[in-house]
Structures are given as structure tokens and as C-alpha cells.
């Protein structure tokens, strides 16, 4: 959540892993480093972390000399829709998908499910959004 100069963050247990864009592109071809903060890279990081035995992940959390991601071992992966997310924050739609409005919507969506926060989209297609909720 953020508004003006204020922001709210949640700390989650995660394993920080160094990787590369070619390795991430092997999990989702659209993550080639040209747009590191995109739904393509979100999907690649989600799949990469899943392949390492963790539930999901997010990032990049650093990009100097490669790419560093945070793999979350205990997140709940939830399939929802942008229609549902927009009920939690009207600015989160299939047109926006990523950014402050959807960050707030996913956070609020996960709180409504009993979690402390959430992130994503881990994957998205059409109206479908996959979100990571953390307890």
C-alpha cells in the first residue's frame, strides 16, 4: 500500500537467489531483461522459484551484475480474477495488471483471505490473476 509519501511494507521469509535473465527466460521466454518489472518476469520468477522447491517468488530485488530474486517457501498460491481484485482496489484491472493499484488490490485480497499480505501477479492471462498470499 502506498499513498503520497507514505508506504506500507510487509517482511516475509524468503531465500534470496542469484540467477540470470537467460535462466529466467528458460522458464518464461518474455523475461529477457529488457523489462525486468513485468508480468513476463513475474511469471518467470514464479516458475524459477517453484523449480527450486519453493512455492513462488518475486523480484528482481537487485539487478547489478545479474539478477537477484526472492523465493518464498510458504506462500499460498491463489487463482483469482482481475474482476475480483478490482473489488479490492478499483484501479487494478486487466489493463493495469502490475503496479501500485494492483499491489494494493492483491494485499487487500489476501488480507480478506486471512493472510497478512500478498504479491503478484505471479501469472496472468485474460481476466485470470494468480496471487501469492503470505501468512
Task: Please describe what this structure looks like.
This protein is of the alpha+beta class and 135 residues long. Helix content is 28%, strand content 33%. It is built from four helices and eight strands, in the order βββααβββααββ. The strands form three sheets. Strands 3-5-4 form a three-stranded antiparallel beta sheet. A hairpin with a 2-residue loop joins strand 7 and strand 8 (128-134). Helix 3 crosses helix 4 (100-112). The two termini are 17 Å apart. The model has no long low-confidence stretch (mean pLDDT 92).
Which residues sit in consecutive blocks of at least 5 with pLDDT less than 50?
none
Q: Give the DSSP E fraction (strand runs of 2 or more residues).
A: 25-35%
Give the integer mean of the pLDDT values: 92
* Strand arrangement in the largest pleated sheet: 3-5-4
Element order: H for helix, E for strand = EEEHHEEEHHEE
Gross geometry: globular
Q: Report how far apart the termini are.
A: 17 Å
**Helical content class:** 25-40%
Amino acid at each position: 500500500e502506498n499513498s503520497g509519501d507514505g508506504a506500507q511494507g510487509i517482511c516475509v521469509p524468503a531465500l534470496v537467489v542469484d540467477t540470470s535473465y537467460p535462466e529466467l527466460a528458460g522458464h518464461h521466454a518474455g523475461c529477457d531483461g529488457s523489462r525486468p518489472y513485468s508480468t513476463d518476469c513475474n511469471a518467470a520468477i514464479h516458475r524459477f522459484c517453484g523449480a527450486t522447491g519453493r512455492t513462488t517468488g518475486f523480484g528482481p530485488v537487485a539487478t547489478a551484475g545479474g539478477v537477484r530474486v526472492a523465493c518464498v517457501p510458504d506462500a499460498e498460491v491463489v487463482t483469482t480474477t482481475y474482476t475480483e481484485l478490482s473489488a479490492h482496489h478499483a484501479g487494478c484491472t486487466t489493463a493495469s495488471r502490475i503496479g501500485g493499484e494492483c499491489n494494493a488490490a492483491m494485499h487487500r485480497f489476501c488480507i480478506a483471505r486471512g493472510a497478512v499480505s500478498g504479491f503478484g501477479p505471479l501469472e496472468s492471462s485474460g481476466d485470470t490473476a494468480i496471487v501469492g498470499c503470505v501468512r
